């Protein structure tokens, strides 16, 4: 058999071996970071709770029982009840679905507009870069939480208004991160080679340059999830989020605030849930940063 016949097979095996080796190295990096594993576990529990909420809840989250209101944790109500006698555990579980849906929508909206705007600004430069980034600066001039409050207050509570309010605040940060990464990548040799081969600027940017800019973006998106969940909880606590009786962690805190002296645990568990999820996403972001750091793979 000729050498030419053997070459494709050898290359295929080699490419698969390199890909497998990189995946194994990434697993080793994340395994060394126990805090990142803890973050991954917390986030995974939250996601599974959101998906399996109808099956793992013990009560109807909307069921009112005035006679059993503000109860302490018991075998019947694992985390107690709120001021209307609704099961706190079931409402926290369904609140996870609310939090993750809103966070996913806001992060998606921020990436949908922020990533291409930042990529075009960094790749094209000149007046296009200046125009886009000055527009991003104008958005960033407003404090993110204050901008969200203004938008939600004017549009009214609901999923759509929360998506827009939280997603709009994420656009500038995504655009800036992608722009910085594109500025570093567009000077590489493979970009010049693609230009010499006659490939269009659109193909070079979105098919070659942008895939090489995903590392810092993925880290940022994991942190954006935490920020969106915290922002939604804050807006709900202020009465600007989803309307009652929608299960929402921030709304749960708001509703039991007048009854803290009677049953402080009614606010403790929703607050603890918010803190754990935010911590989980932050720890997971640190783990992703380690995975994409080339220095972690030095032997």
The major pleated sheet works out as:
none
Secondary structure tally: strands: 0
Task: Name the structural class.
Answer: mainly alpha
Q: SSE string, helix = H, strand = E?
A: HHHHHHHHHHHH
What is the total number of structural domains? 1
**CATH top level class name:** Mainly Alpha
CATH superfamily: MetI-like
Q: Return the CATH topology.
A: MetI-like fold
DSSP strand content? under 5%
Unreliable stretches (pLDDT < 50, length at least 5) are 1-16
> What characteristic shape results from the CA principal axes?
elongated
Evaluate the radius of gyration: 24 Å
Q: DSSP helix count?
A: 12
How far the N terminus sits from the C terminus, by CA atoms, comes to 38 Å
Written overview of the protein:
The protein is mainly alpha-helical and 299 residues long. The chain has twelve helices and no strands. The chain has one domain: Orthogonal Bundle (MetI-like fold). It is 73% helix and 0% strand. Residues 1-16 have low confidence and may be disordered.
């Amino acid at each position: 058999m000729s050498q030419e016949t053997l070459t494709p097979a050898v290359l295929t095996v080699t490419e698969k071996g390199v890909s497998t080796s990189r995946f194994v190295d990434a697993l080793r990096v994340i395994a060394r970071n126990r805090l990142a594993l803890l973050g991954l576990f917390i986030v995974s529990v939250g996601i599974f709770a959101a998906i399996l909420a109808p099956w793992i809840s013990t009560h109807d989250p909307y069921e009112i029982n005035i006679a059993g209101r503000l109860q302490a944790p018991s075998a019947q109500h694992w985390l107690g009840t709120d001021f209307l006698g609704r099961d706190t555990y079931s409402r926290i579980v369904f609140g996870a679905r609310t939090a993750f849906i809103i966070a996913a929508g806001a992060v998606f909206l921020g990436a949908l507009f922020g990533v291409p705007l930042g990529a075009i600004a960094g790749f094209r430069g000149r007046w296009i870069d200046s125009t886009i980034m000055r527009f991003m600066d104008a958005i960033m001039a407003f404090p993110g939480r204050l901008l969200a409050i203004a938008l939600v207050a004017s549009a009214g509570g609901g999923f759509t208004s929360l998506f827009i309010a939280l997603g709009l605040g994420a656009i500038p940060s995504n655009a800036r991160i992608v722009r910085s990464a594109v500025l570093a990548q567009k000077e590489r040799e493979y970009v010049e080679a693609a230009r010499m081969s006659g490939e269009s600027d659109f193909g070079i940017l979105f098919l070659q340059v942008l895939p090489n800019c995903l590392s810092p973006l993925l880290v940022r998106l994991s942190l954006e999830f935490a920020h969106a969940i915290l922002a939604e909880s804050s807006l709900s606590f202020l009465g600007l989020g989803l309307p009652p009786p929608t299960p929402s962690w921030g709304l749960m805190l708001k509703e039991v605030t007048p009854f803290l002296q009677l049953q402080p645990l009614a606010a403790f568990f929703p607050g603890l849930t918010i803190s754990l999820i935010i911590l989980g996403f932050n720890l997971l972001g640190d783990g992703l940063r380690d995975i994409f750091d080339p220095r972690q793979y030095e032997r």
